[in-house]
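Q: Structure for this?
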Amino acid sequence: MKTALLILTLLTASTKPARVADTSLALPNLNGHALTPLHAKGKQPAVLFFITHDCPVANKMIPEMRRIAKGFSGKAQFTLVYAEPELHPKVLAKHQTDFSLAQINSVHDRKHQLVRAVGATVTPEAVVVLANGVIAYRGRINNFYEDFGKPRRVVTQHDLRDALKAVLAGQPAPKPRGDCIGCFIPKLSGYKSK
Amino acid sequence: MKKVILITTLLAALPGRAEVTFTKDVAPIIFNHCAGCHRPGEAAPFALLNYNDVRKRARLIVRVTKDRVMPPWHAEKGSFVFHGDRRLTEKQIDTLAQWTQAGAPEGDPAKLLALPKFTAGWQLGKPDLIVKMTEPFPVPAEGRDIYRGFVVPLNLPKDKWLKAIEFRPGARSVVHHCLFSYDTTGEARRMDRADRQPGFRRMRRQGRGVGSLGGWAVGGQPRELPDDLAWHLPKTADLVLSIHYHPSGKPERDQSSIGLYFTDQPPRTAFAGVQLPPAFGALSGVDIPAGNKAYKVTDSFTLPIAVEAFAISAHAHYLGKHLQMTATLPTGKQLNLLDIPDWDFSWQEQYQFKDFIKLPKGTRLDSMVVWDNSEANPNNPTVPPVRVRWGVESKDEMGSLTLLCRPAPGERYATLTTAYARHFTEVRTRTTREMAARVQGTNGDRILDAFLRRNDRNRNGKIDLSEAPRWLKPSFDRADTNNDNALDAAELRAARDRLKLNR
């Protein structure tokens, strides 16, 4: 009886299945080489950072994105995703130089394939995808911004780092402790075709 | 269901419920209230100059205008109108929301109004003197915001009357605000020489030989002092800049330029800054316990003459929360001069009234500064919070409001400054008394010893003159009965007991 209850509880708890992304999705990096941003080698999780080149909140957090990518290198795969279809390649290249991004794989998500695959809505948003495609974490990087126009002088909650540590330890990732503040990613129809 | 849709469609098509479009409704708001900063070469991170710029950020624009984060403006609506007030009306905010909800339609592009004409280069015309920071200052990609002083020698041939200062940031994405002052004491130069990096950390000196010349904040328009007013700039003055930098995510180098505008016409009268509490709160015994959400200091001053006020500013560091000054007329009528309910250190503006404000003799000015030293305050530079006292470093606190005013016609300037000097002394005496009262009672000696230990930085068992907190300095000599330029425990106790008797 007890076991049956337990199973029932487990079943009801998991009625909302975790979102699963198609990890085979391939996109060219900035040099034209194909990447699979959602599929890392071995059992490593894949991490995406969604940014837009002129979002002040995203730009201020790039140094932290670089640090996280460096700190977890060899344990997870990191990709920086420009979520702006109309971004000119020259502007993108300048952004890469200005913010010293040579060390991190970057892709230009012109058709919002990645945006849709993982349901990203804001920049800078971080997404952690497990080897089986399960989206383990989606949300803010930390609590630098808890509200618009009010950056914290001292960051006290490192949501993405905590999620990554949990995932690497085989644990479920804790949910972000606050909203992801930044610039909304407009739907593709929100862009005027040129 | 179909019926409902039909009805809504019909309603929407009814005349009088005209569609909100970019061309007709949104462009006038964006062009007049946002484009000034949101255009290439200005401080904001992206342009808002055409339909596409605005449409793709429509949702974000609705959010930041509803939250009143944009356009940046921190003063609540008060009794008087300020120059350059950037606040949107509720109706404008609503229009932006309605437009976004309707799918951000463009309307007829042929009817788009022209962008306002933005003056290139110096906004006030060619300055009489252009100076520049002597060397570029490197701003790192990230980290704490930086507060830095720079000295710029002016080498004036003679004393000058200064009408306006125009500031042109070198690296716009990181320069957030700049306060101007002058220094004839050479202190700024000495500090600059003593610091290996360009510039220096902070000017300590206030008072004689040093004076404020206003300031600039992102998006701020330079403005001349009204009427015939002018600052007196002594020939030996160096210009001192206190610049507040915000790292942007990428390294920058800033070398800002400054234009000075002079006049040969001396003003009919000098003007004064009535600062409440005085000395940026140095005499008010500011001592904010860790975690305290609302630590308050107030001050009042009654005008001994009729004045004409023309500007007001507020100053606090990171923990400042609510700063306010009101004027109560002799009739009892209360006026709200400046009210900043959600202080942000990053937006220190100089608020200039559109017209001179006449305040009759006997008007009481009340100022209030509230600090929030809790962890919930995102601006708190120390987490978990620690006890914070008055000081010049950015982790210390200051707090005051300053009303700039000139004597009304027929009134004497000296009457105002004399009364203010008396007020200055009164505040100091009151604080000293309160401090003494606090260290009375059974715990008195213990508190006094703790006070000694805390301030005795060189650990010689005494408080040397250089170690004495500011409020103690004026009574230092009297307390130093053995004249060794230091206060030992016995001298401190004796001084306390004397004060107790005086109460």
